[in-house]
Amino acid sequence: MKLQRVLQYAQQLLKEAIEEGDTVVDATAGNGHDTLFLAQLVGDGGQVYAFDVQKSAVDATLHRLLDHSLEHRALVLHAGHEQVAKHVQKPVAAAIFNLGYLPGSNHDIITKPNTTIQAIEDLLGLLKIGGLIVLVIYHGHPGGKEERDTVIDYVSTLPQKYVHVLKYEFLNQQNDPPFVIALEKMKELPKNP
Ligand SMILES: C[S@@+](CC[C@H](N)C(=O)[O-])C[C@H]1O[C@@H](n2cnc3c(N)ncnc32)[C@H](O)[C@@H]1O
């Protein structure tokens, strides 16, 4: 028996939530690893919407898709995930966030508490029943702990009859290891639950 590592676990959750033909979201495209993974899962009938505020990340993601001849399955947007509701109109089966900065890039460009919460809120509205939002939370960098705490506070208050909230975390690893939060939509949320 080997406990699944955090990234493996996040991918396992996505695999279980996504079927061919689904609409899905990569909220933080970065170098496009998750966008590619999602594009492989949705098949030719599905659609990935990928967001990033850095042009270099958009380009890297497009290149990765092109390398695998899967560019037709994804729309890679040079836009913040807080604009998800403007761009996505169809019911969403799953979304993934990798919070923090892009390794090997500008460490000052990080995901931020307010825009992350805005995107989660809008995605909860867009999710189909049974749909999943997976957040991989990196919190070792400056600003990371503030974002971590804001996200934990927000998801902890979501009423369980509408959303199930899970945390997957190794408790004895050193150096602020990342952890996973997963939100499963159980029921349509009222405007102000
Ligand atoms: C940890 S990296 C993502 C890694 C990525 N999943 C991969 O596979 O390479 C976080 C990314 O979030 C992006 N980002 C920061 N703020 C954002 C926002 N408001 N909307 C979308 N992306 C954002 C950063 O530019 C960075 O590329």
UniProtKB/TrEMBL annotation:
Annotated InterPro entries: MnmM_MeTrfase (IPR010719), SAM-dependent_MTases_sf (IPR029063)
Keyword Methyltransferase: yes
GO molecular function, one term: methyltransferase activity
Keywords assigned by UniProt, alphabetized: Methyltransferase, Transferase
Any single GO BP term: methylation
The protein's name in its UniProt record: rRNA methyltransferase
Organism the protein comes from: Lysinibacillus contaminans
